[in-house]
Amino acid sequence: MMTRVFVYGTLKKGQPNYHRMFNNINGRAEFLASACTTQKYPLVIAGTYNIPFLLNIPGQGHRVHGEIYKVDEQMLKFLDDFESVPTMYQRTLVKLEVKEWLGQTEGEERTSPGCITEAFVYSTTTYKPDWPSLPSYESYDSYGDHGLQYVTREARD
Predict the structure, then answer these.
(1) Verdict on whether the full-model pTM lies above 0.90
(2) Which residue is catalytic, options 83, 97, 106, 108?
(3) Sign of torsion over alpha carbons 16, 82, 148, 151
C-alpha cells in the first residue's frame, strides 16, 4: 500500500534530510511531482535548530511549494517517527496543485499541471505562541539568505 506525502522542508531535494528519503533501511520513496498547497499556510523557521514548520493555520502566509512522494508503509512509519508525530507534527491531508508531474508508475495516471490532488503533510497545531508572527516563506531552503541554516540531528548537542 503506497501513500502520498507532500514534503516542504528539509526532506526536499537538495535539503539536509533528503538522503533519508532514499535510505532503503527507512523504506521506499518515489518522487511524483512538484506542487504547491491550494491554500495559504505559514511556513516558518523556528526553534534552536532552525526547523521548518508548516503551521496548520489555513489562510495565513503563502501557498507553500514542495514535492509529492509516494512512500511505502515502512517509510511512512519512519517519517512519522522522524517528524515526532503526534507531539511535534501531525500528519494531515492537504490539497495540492500539481506544478510538474514526473511519476511514471504503472496504473498511476499522469496528472497534468494545474490539477488538484491530495497528499499527507506534516504540519503542526502544537506551535509556540510567537511562531505565527515569524516571517513566513513560500519555498523553504536551509541555505537561503535568511541565514537560519538547519542544524542536523548529528550536529545537535
Answers:
(1) yes
(2) 83
(3) negative
